[in-house]
């Protein structure tokens, strides 16, 4: 009974400390790489490049820990910012339903937003085609069969 009271007292003392500690974490910035400049006598001057000694690697989680990161501006979606889709590493240059896609190759947005290709079809240059039998896209997009050959099961002149 006495040990139970001691544990309860210990928990009661640690909870306010944990809450106070987590609140101080919310007020700090959370960059992965923090730069600290050495203090100079003239406060208007700052070095052009920080020295290697002044770079400190912060935690990968940042200062917020398990609480996550709240984006004050909100997510940059392509319906509000269309140039997001033209950035390097984007899924495609076109915006469909707040997602960046390439309407010339995307099966769910082939040629225009919302136009879906059927199960056996793929999107080639914005048109839904069946690569198993299409002689202009035999087996894959842009694979033309030689004049006179037909496309069967995705192969030109099968048999």
Automatic annotation (TrEMBL):
Pfam families listed in its UniProt record: Stig1
Organism domain of life: Eukaryota
Keyword Signal: yes
Keyword Cell membrane: no
Region named Disordered: 35-54
Signal peptide: 1-20
UniProtKB keywords: Signal
Biased composition (Low complexity): 43-54
PANTHER family, per database record: F12F1.21 PROTEIN (PTHR33227:SF21), STIGMA-SPECIFIC STIG1-LIKE PROTEIN 3 (PTHR33227)
Family: Belongs to the STIG1 family.
Protein name: Stigma-specific STIG1-like protein 1
């Amino acid at each position: 009974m006495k040990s139970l009271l001691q544990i309860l007292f210990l928990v009661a003392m640690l909870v306010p400390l944990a809450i106070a500690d987590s609140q101080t974490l919310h007020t700090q910035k959370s960059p992965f790489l923090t730069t600290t400049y050495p203090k100079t006598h003239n406060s208007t001057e700052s070095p052009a490049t920080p020295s290697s000694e002044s770079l400190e690697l912060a935690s990968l989680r940042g200062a917020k820990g398990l609480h996550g990161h709240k984006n004050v501006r909100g997510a940059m979606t392509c319906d509000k910012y269309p140039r997001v889709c033209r950035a390097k590493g984007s899924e495609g240059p076109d915006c469909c339903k707040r997602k960046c896609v390439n309407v010339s190759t995307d099966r769910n947005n082939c040629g225009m937003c919302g136009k879906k290709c059927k199960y056996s079809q793929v999107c080639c240059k914005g048109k839904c085609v069946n690569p198993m039998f299409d002689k202009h896209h035999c087996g894959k997009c842009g694979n033309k069969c030689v004049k006179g050959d037909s496309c069967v099961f995705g192969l030109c002149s099968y048999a």
